[in-house]
Structure formats: C-alpha cells, structure tokens
Amino acid sequence: MLNYRQQDKWDNGNEGFQSPISLISDDVINNQTDWQFDIKSPILGQLIEDSNNTFRITGTGNVTINQINFQFQELHFHAPSEHLIDKQQYPMEWHFVFKTNAMQTMVIGKMATEGKSSPVFDSILDEYVSGEQTKLSKHIDLTPFLQGLDHVYHYQGSLTTPPLTQGVEWYVGKDPFSLSELQIERYQDIFALPNNRKIQPMKHRPVSFGKM
C-alpha cells in the first residue's frame, strides 16, 4: 500500500514539474483560452478494482483535445482533493486519465463538494468489493462528468502517485459537482486514510484558464 505519510521518500518526487499544485485565478497567464475538446465515444466504466488507497474504474471511450486523440484509461479518486483552487480544498477530487497511442498522458480533474447525491457514485460504491477486481453489472456512463467544462485550468505536471511521471497535461475544472454527505462518508468508511499528495512547488510554471 502506498504510504501517504512518507511522501518525501517517494522516488522522483523532487524532479521537474510535479503535481498537484495550488491554482490561483489571479495568477493565470491567459483567461480566454478555448481548447477544442470533443467526446468521440462515450466514456464507459466497465471494471472496478481495489487499488488499496482508493478504487479505480477502467473502461472505454475516446476524446480529442486540439485534434489529438486520447483513449480513456481509468477514473480514480482522491479524498480530500489534491489540487487547491483559490486556496480551497474540496472533499474529493476525481481523476479521469487518458493516453494517446504514443503514451502521452492527459488527466482531467474534477472537484466534488457536499450537496446532492450522485446516482453514478452510488452505483460505484454499491459495486465495490474489497481486494477484488469486479466486472460492473452494468456499464457506468461517465460522459456527463466531462461535459460543460466551461471553467478549466491547464498546466504541465506529473502523475500524483509513483512513479510521478512528468509531462502530464493537466486540465482541472474549477466548478465542482456534488456528492451527498452520506456518499462521502461511505467512501471514507472504506478508505479512512487521506490519499492526497501534498502541494508541489510551482517553479514558475504558466497556468492558463479557459473552456473545453
């Protein structure tokens, strides 16, 4: 199991541009960016797997950003959020991971706040089996979470778990979606320990802001 209490001992953690970072609206270099983002086929969750610190959903789906094709790899979860937005930390952050055929990684981060319940998250929680990889009884459509991304930060960073690979294209949504208090508690009952990496140095990286 990955030890989040000993993050300073993770390999490669001090190299280059690392993630997550603190995203400050007043510091963005361009707040009128419009990325050409298209969902070419639905993002469907098909398997759920226990990865010790969280669970992950794998499946199928394709998107393009500026005409570059990315295949859906997985959705996984962090509680509390890893990125900060205008110094605010959210109860959860969902990471939608994509790759090109050339293995370029792109991650779309979505913040979750407490509010109305999410039927999708209920389905995920209901299907989870500790220590197992389970085929979902019904494919879960994750596409709606990637629609209407009107306020998004973009920067170059890394994976937030070892091997902390650099060169990751990060798109982090500013507008949160809601999960109920009960849903957040259900998740925390399964994974009691926080699994957020600490905020990393900016190192003069540019951050842009716009619409997908």
UniProtKB/TrEMBL annotation:
SMART domains on file: Carb_anhydrase
Top EC category: lyase
Family matches, as Gene3D superfamilies: Alpha carbonic anhydrase (3.10.200.10)
Alpha-carbonic anhydrase domain: residues covered: 1-212
Catalysed reactions listed for this entry: hydrogencarbonate + H(+) = CO2 + H2O
GO molecular function: carbonate dehydratase activity; zinc ion binding
Pfam families: Carb_anhydrase
InterPro entries referenced in this protein's UniProt entry, alphabetically: Alpha_CA_prokaryot-like, CA_dom, CA_dom_sf, Carbonic_anhydrase_a-class
Source superkingdom: Bacteria
EC assignment: 4.2.1.1
Keywords: Lyase, Metal-binding, Zinc
Family statement: Belongs to the alpha-carbonic anhydrase family.
Name assigned to this protein: carbonic anhydrase
Organism: Paucilactobacillus nenjiangensis
